[in-house]
């Protein structure tokens, strides 16, 4: 049975019962509600002009408020949530919010088209910074705004506004009232929304999900819709029936078990990386920051990223290098396998109809395993890598064993480099071994040329990144990252 | 505030009371941040509004054999399909040469060329339906690169040639010679608001078009021709754009025409909003350039002979390629006197998007070549490139000589010597050069680089007659003022500046002056808001209009108080006549009762301009804007990754009308120019399809690309020309400032060969281009050992 979609927006709980389940929040805001403050710049979650803040109850009962790209969020995914747009920032007395005032003071808008999106990202930071006396550091500002493009200002005045907003008279936000509202619109049973023969299902339990998946093996599974959204807005694909997994509480499970970190498939990329970085801060923090953008990481999931299995994904190489596992479920039960075995060929994966990703399991740090991952792209923020490399060698007394070398962007899937691995296993991790392995990489991969890089650049940097790894980890003269990585060097130079 | 940019505390204008010179926020800033600023797509839609989408060519060069729209028409919500046969008037949207069909007539000349229009009940339905057309093509050979166009002698306009003296002879005589080549890529404008037009039929033959455009008058003309109507039937309005950068100068016409053609047929309002991918596939970009050069110079680095041949990728039609190439020719000197000169420029006809205006309009492409060359001269002579730059600067006066450009305009406002000296000193250039050398000597993987580059940029349209503007100023009886002018607001703050000028003239607060939407039914026959001239031209025209009203009010007030009109002062919302201070609004009310005209038009035509396109000489520019910047980078020699560590820029905005806006323009242009030269890469596949057609694949700078250490300052100066309040233009020239970023990267690349070899660094300097340049230097160094 189809029921209207219920969500809170601009002071009221709304029931929406119109349009395809793939209608985007942006379309709904602009075309149905005539709230035109939120803009469309790209309709693919890359420019941030459409940024809004979505509030939802977390499994722990608290309210999470996060920046989201409304251009690729389907309206039914908002059921039980609250949406805040630029129209919400103005105070009841008509005054601007400090975020807005700071933007004006700092001359943070020129053409103004990107401004509402920036304001909403900044507001999400404002909420997070509540109670903190110090203005956010540059790194935090960059993270917050990594999904917002501005073509006019060059960003400097917007960065200033991010630092300035906290200095203006504070405007508080009533989270408790929002929590009560959100609690009032939670459902107890599986939610379905049907329009024109197309149904959107939001199961609430793993069992429901498994049964539904078995019944509808061709339905499209949707989590953050950071990729699936584009199938609709760009490829104009018909998704058929949809199964939304982010209402399944069990899929938010995150815990350590048997030396592995279990991360449920509905956990957002930000939450997943935060958890992983508790164990691998040095190794993965940069990847976390550079993985897509803040709003994409807020809705996108590690499970979805793995299930999608793009050849250029940024997570697969390091997960493969660490021997991470994928947990697959169906109504018949659960099975696990090494992630590297899951990817068979270009966009081809080892699973059967009715199966879906339940979780990934990431090994915790092990003694003597030296793990690193590096990403090469045209831009630091929100870019898809040309080459993504990950290495995990066991080093004892300077000798390599159990070498794991994995790359993205070098083949039809993210995969390991068996010849290069063979060249280093059992050898002293010296420059001669490195050179041998670098030469073997040329036999391991035959990369392609495309708009991101040529085949020769891919090969050359794949080899050179192995050298960077060697510079960082070799037993004789290991060097700190800031002396061999431009971004790390720059960070040091700014603080110095 | 952690920013070290201009604090805007000083009052630049030596007057007791002034509205110009103050760092007022953008007139729409509050609306922007509230989300209440109305862009074309935000205008409440009239009842019955339909939505259009464009069907585009899938082939780079082909004859269309057949088109079948049955499946299109069967899609939900589809109302109509139009082809070129449905155009009542002229099927052309070319701004100068009429080689630019609105819809293909059977020949398609690039992947993305519009072929048909689908009109449906929603934007989404139109987009879905458009994909269902079945088009049969007969493919033809395609030309995709500028070099291929040159070799095939395929040009959109005849090649250009500018010569001074005998460059060949001077080259042969010169003590040192160098030869080389360079490729500099194009750039997508990437205005955040895509192309959009909303056409609403009015009574009779009337048509109102809300269009995101820098050139409402040209939109009016193109639509009138396409609909076979008079100009007076067509009204084009633009309140603001979400960015333009040149991309909405001529190329908004296609969208305006298609919306209008559809609306005219259906007698219903039709909106055409481009999806981002369509926008990038259909519209032209900054021209890429390929250069081959031969330079002769002396032991001190002074250039005596400059020969360059440049060929651009014009795309399939002329569009603005001729004036873009002209500006490139006129900016190959940048800030330098080049001795005997021979410059050839060709606009290659290619089977790609028709390239168009983009901030700088060929100027950046002309100037980057000479900066690249000067860099090589310095390296060849073992000199610091700043010293080679200095010795080649234009002379300051007739005694110094060397003060005439290759196109025969005398440089009479040269401040580059003192501007660069100030920046060199304040940025610690020499000290940092030594520090960097020391760092590079001990750092194996990371190398730092430094460069200081100057800018001299000519202000005015090269085509003399475009240098005119009109304005209307209305003073209402409550003392509030409305100004309308021919310029368009794309974020650059023209309305803020024009309002400041009007407020200043009438002695009232800025808050009392409002600018209304640009509208072809108010000010007629306007020029594009382009060539950085917006505030110069429209500011002067608005000042003229306000001044006429002021004079009338002064005369009226003087008469009433038996005083001399020349002594009447307008200040601080009061009109001072002798001992009397009358509130402005009160005087206005009295003047109205006395039947004094309280509104006026104003007009301005820039004096002293002339240009002979045949000889490529004359006085095309009213004055020059100057600037310079220093950039320091760190480069990873294993991957080609890099990071801008620090940037200092000094810009000559003359007597700035609004220093906050001007600094904003400089910073924005700097980052945008840096994007052009580094991360922004346009990439076509072998079949001629642009594969970087969305922000997922085309990377403009993001927030972390803005250096933490970014210091932009305005150089204290006054325009020697009688420009509006002696200010200088600021739109385009600062886009050339980040040449220093590109050349700092090249400097870092060069350090791997002890600065003995010239790194062949192409632009954009992506990590791949940087690594290629490093590899070439390493190979040269190895070969020499």
From TrEMBL, chain A:
Q: Is the keyword Lipid biosynthesis assigned to this protein?
A: no
Per UniProt, what is one GO molecular function of this protein? 2 iron, 2 sulfur cluster binding
Which enzyme class, named as a word? Answer: oxidoreductase
The record's section on SUPFAM superfamilies has:
2Fe-2S ferredoxin-like, CO dehydrogenase flavoprotein C-terminal domain-like, CO dehydrogenase ISP C-domain like, FAD-binding/transporter-associated domain-like
- Enzyme Commission number(s) from the entry: 1.17.1.4
Which Gene3D superfamilies does UniProt cross-reference here?
3.10.20.30, 3.30.465.10, [2Fe-2S]-binding domain, CO dehydrogenase flavoprotein, C-terminal domain, Uridine Diphospho-n-acetylenolpyruvylglucosamine Reductase, domain 2
Instruction: List the Pfam families.
Output: CO_deh_flav_C, FAD_binding_5, Fer2, Fer2_2
- InterPro entries on file: 2Fe-2S-bd, 2Fe-2S-bd_dom_sf, 2Fe-2S_ferredoxin-like_sf, 2Fe-2S_ferredoxin-type, 2Fe2S_fd_BS, Ald_Oxase/xanthine_DH-like, Beta-grasp_dom_sf, CO_DH_flav_C
2Fe-2S ferredoxin-type domain residues are 3-89
- Cite the entry's keywords alphabetically: FAD, Flavoprotein, Iron, Metal-binding, Oxidoreductase
Which residues does the UniProt record annotate as the domain FAD-binding PCMH-type? 193-367
PANTHER family, A to Z: XANTHINE DEHYDROGENASE
* Protein name in UniProt: Xanthine dehydrogenase small subunit
Q: Which gene name belongs to this protein?
A: xdhA
UniProtKB/TrEMBL annotation, chain B:
EC number(s)? 1.17.1.4
**Which Pfam families has this protein been placed in?**
Ald_Xan_dh_C, MoCoBD_1, MoCoBD_2
Q: Which stretches make up the Aldehyde oxidase/xanthine dehydrogenase a/b hammerhead domain?
A: 34-141
Highest taxon listed in the record's lineage: Bacteria
Q: Which UniProt keywords apply?
A: 2Fe-2S, Iron, Iron-sulfur, Metal-binding, Molybdenum, Oxidoreductase
Question: What name does the UniProt record give this protein?
Answer: Xanthine dehydrogenase molybdopterin binding subunit
MF terms in GO: 2 iron, 2 sulfur cluster binding; iron ion binding; molybdenum ion binding; xanthine dehydrogenase activity
Q: Which organism is it from?
A: Duganella vulcania
Named cofactor requirement(s): FAD; Mo-molybdopterin cytosine dinucleotide; Mo-molybdopterin; [2Fe-2S] cluster
Q: Which top EC class applies here?
A: oxidoreductase
Q: InterPro entries attached here?
A: Ald_Oxase/Xan_DH_a/b (IPR000674), Ald_Oxase/Xan_DH_a/b_sf (IPR036856), Ald_Oxase/xanthine_DH-like (IPR016208), AldOxase/xan_DH_MoCoBD1 (IPR008274), AldOxase/xan_DH_MoCoBD2 (IPR046867), AldOxase/xan_DH_Mopterin-bd_sf (IPR037165), Xanthine_DH_Mopterin-bd_su (IPR014309)
Span-the-membrane segments of this chain are none
UniProt entry tagged with the keyword Hydrolase? no
Key word Zinc present = no
Q: Which family does it belong to?
A: Belongs to the xanthine dehydrogenase family.
């Amino acid at each position: 049975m189809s029921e209207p979609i219920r969500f809170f927006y601009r002071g009221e709980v709304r029931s929406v019962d119109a349009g395809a389940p793939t209608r985007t929040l942006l379309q709904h805001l602009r075309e149905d509600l005539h709230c035109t403050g939120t803009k469309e710049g790209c309709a693919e979650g890359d420019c941030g002009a459409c940024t809004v803040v979505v509030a939802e109850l977390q499994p722990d009962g608290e309210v999470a408020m996060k920046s989201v790209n409304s251009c690729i969020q389907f309206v039914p995914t908002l059921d039980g949530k609250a949406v805040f747009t630029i129209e919400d920032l103005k105070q009841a007395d008509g005054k601007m919010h400090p975020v807005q005032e700071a933007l004006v003071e700092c001359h943070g808008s020129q053409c103004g088209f990107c401004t509402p999106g920036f304001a909403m990202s900044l507001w999400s930071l404002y909420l997070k910074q509540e109670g903190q006396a110090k203005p956010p550091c540059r790194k935090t500002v960059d993270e917050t705004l990594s999904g917002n493009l501005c073509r006019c200002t060059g960003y400097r005045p917007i960065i200033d506004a991010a630092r300035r907003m906290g200095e203006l008279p504070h405007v508080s936000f009533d989270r408790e009232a929002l929590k009560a509202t959100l609690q009032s619109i939670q459902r107890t049973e599986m939610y379905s929304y049907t329009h024109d023969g197309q149904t959107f299902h939001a199961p609430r339990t793993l069992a429901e999900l498994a049964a539904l998946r078995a019944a509808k093996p061709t339905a499209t599974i949707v989590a953050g819709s950071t990729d699936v959204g584009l199938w609709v807005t760009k490829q104009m694909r018909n998704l058929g029936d949809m199964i939304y997994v982010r209402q399944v509480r069990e899929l938010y499970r995150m815990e350590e078990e048997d030396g592995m970190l279990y991360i449920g498939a509905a956990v957002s990329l930000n939450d997943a990386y935060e958890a992983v970085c508790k164990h691998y801060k040095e190794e993965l923090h940069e990847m976390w920051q550079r993985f897509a953008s803040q709003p994409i990481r807020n809705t996108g999931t590690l499970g979805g990223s793995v299930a999608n299995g793009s050849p250029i994904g940024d997570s697969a190489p390091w997960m493969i290098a660490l021997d991470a596992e994928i947990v697959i479920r169906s109504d018949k039960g659960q099975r696990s396998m090494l992630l590297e075995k899951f990817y068979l060929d270009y966009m081809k994966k080892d699973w059967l109809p009715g199966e879906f990703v339940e979780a990934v399991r990431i090994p915790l740090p092990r003694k003597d395993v030296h793990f690193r991952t590096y990403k090469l792209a045209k831009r630091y923020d929100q870019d898809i890598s040309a080459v993504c490399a990950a290495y995990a060698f066991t080093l004892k007394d300077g000798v390599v064993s159990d070498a794991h070398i994995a790359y993205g962007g070098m083949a039809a899937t993210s995969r390991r480099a068996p010849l290069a691995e063979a060249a280093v296993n059992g050898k002293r991790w010296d420059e001669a071994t490195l050179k041998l392995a670098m030469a073997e990489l040329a036999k391991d991969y035959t990369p392609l040329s495309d708009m991101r890089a040529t085949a020769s650049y891919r090969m050359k940097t794949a080899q050179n990144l192995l050298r960077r790894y060697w510079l960082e980890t070799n037993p004789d003269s290991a060097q700190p990252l800031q002396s061999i990585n431009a971004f790390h060097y720059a960070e040091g130079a700014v603080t110095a | 505030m952690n920013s070290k940019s201009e604090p805007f505390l000083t009052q630049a204008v030596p007057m007791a009371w002034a509205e110009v010179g103050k760092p007022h926020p953008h007139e729409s800033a509050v609306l922007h941040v509230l989300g209440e600023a109305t862009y074309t797509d935000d205008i409440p839609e009239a009842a019955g509004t339909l939505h259009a989408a464009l069907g585009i060519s899938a082939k780079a060069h082909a004859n269309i054999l057949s088109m079948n729209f049955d499946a299109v028409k069967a899609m939900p919500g589809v109302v109509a399909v139009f082809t070129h046969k449905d155009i009542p008037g002229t099927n052309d949207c070319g701004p100068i040469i009429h080689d630019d069909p609105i819809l293909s007539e059977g020949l398609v000349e690039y992947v993305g060329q519009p072929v048909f229009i689908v009109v449906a009940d929603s934007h989404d339905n139109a987009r879905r339906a458009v994909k269902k057309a079945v088009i049969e093509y007969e493919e033809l050979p395609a030309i995709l690169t500028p070099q291929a166009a040159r070799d095939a002698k395929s040009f959109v306009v005849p090649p250009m040639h500018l010569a001074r003296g005998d460059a060949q002879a001077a080259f042969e005589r010169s003590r040192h010679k160098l030869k080389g080549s360079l490729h500099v890529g194009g750039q997508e404008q990437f205005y955040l608001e895509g192309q959009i037009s909303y056409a609403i039929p009015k009574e009779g033959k009337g048509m109102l078009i809300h269009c995101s455009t820098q050139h409402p008058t040209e939109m009016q003309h193109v639509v009138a021709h396409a609909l076979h109507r008079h100009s007076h039937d067509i009204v084009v309005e633009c309140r603001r754009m979400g960015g333009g950068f040149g991309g909405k100068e001529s190329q908004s016409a296609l969208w305006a025409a298609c919306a209008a053609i559809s609306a005219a047929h259906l007698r219903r309002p039709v909106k055409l909003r481009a999806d981002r991918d369509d926008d990038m596939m259909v519209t032209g970009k900054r021209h890429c350039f390929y250069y081959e050069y031969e330079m002769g110079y002396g032991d001190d680095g002074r250039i005596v002979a400059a020969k360059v041949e440049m060929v651009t990728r014009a795309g399939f039609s002329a569009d603005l390629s001729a004036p873009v190439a002209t500006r490139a020719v006129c900016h190959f000197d940048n800030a330098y006197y080049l001795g005997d000169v021979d410059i050839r420029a060709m606009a290659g006809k290619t089977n790609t998007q028709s390239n168009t205006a983009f901030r700088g309009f060929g100027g950046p492409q002309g100037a980057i070549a000479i900066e690249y060359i000067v860099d090589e001269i310095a390296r060849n002579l073992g000199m610091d490139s700043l010293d080679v730059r200095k010795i080649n600067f234009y002379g300051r006066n007739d005694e110094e000589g060397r003060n005439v450009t290759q196109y025969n305009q005398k440089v009479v406002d040269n401040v580059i010597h003192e501007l660069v000296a100030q920046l060199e000193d304040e940025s610690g250039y020499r000290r940092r050069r030594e520090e960097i050398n020391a760092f590079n000597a001990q750092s194996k993987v990371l190398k730092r680089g430094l460069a200081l580059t100057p800018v001299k940029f000519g202000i005015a349209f090269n085509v003399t007659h475009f240098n005119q503007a009109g304005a209307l100023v209305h003073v209402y009886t409550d003392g509030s003022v409305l100004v309308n002018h021919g310029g368009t607001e794309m974020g650059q703050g023209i309305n803020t500046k024009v309002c400041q000028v009007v407020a200043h003239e009438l002695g009232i607060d800025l808050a009392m002056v409002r600018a209304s939407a640009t509208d072809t039914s108010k000010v007629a026959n306007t020029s594009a808001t382009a060539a950085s001239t917006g505030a110069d031209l429209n500011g002067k025209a608005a000042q003229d209009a306000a001044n006429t009203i002021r004079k009338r009010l002064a005369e009226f007030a003087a008469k009433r108080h038996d005083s001399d009109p020349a002594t009447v002062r307008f200040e601080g919302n009061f009109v001072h006549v002798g001992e009397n201070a009358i509130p402005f609004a009160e005087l206005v009310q009295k003047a109205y009762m006395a039947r004094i005209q309280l509104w006026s038009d104003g007009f301005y035509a820039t004096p002293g301009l002339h240009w002979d396109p045949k000889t490529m000489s004359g006085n095309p520019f009213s004055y020059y804007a100057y600037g310079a910047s220093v950039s320091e980078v760190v480069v990873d020699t294993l991957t080609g990754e890099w990071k801008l560590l620090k940037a200092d820029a000094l810009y000559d905005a003359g007597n700035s009308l609004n220093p906050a806006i001007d600094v904003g323009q400089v910073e924005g242009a700097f980052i945008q120019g840096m994007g052009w030269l580094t991360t922004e890469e346009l990439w076509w596949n072998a079949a001629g399809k642009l594969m970087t057609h969305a922000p997922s694949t085309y990377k403009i700078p993001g927030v972390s690309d803005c250096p933490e250490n970014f210091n932009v300052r305005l150089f204290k100066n006054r325009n020697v020309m009688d420009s509006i309040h002696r200010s200088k233009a600021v739109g385009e020239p600062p886009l050339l400032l980040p040449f220093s970023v590109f050349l700092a990267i090249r400097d870092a690349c060069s350090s791997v060969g002890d600065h003995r070899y010239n790194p062949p660094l192409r632009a954009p300097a992506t990590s791949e281009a940087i690594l290629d340049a490093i590899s070439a230097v390493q190979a040269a160094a190895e070969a020499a050992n």
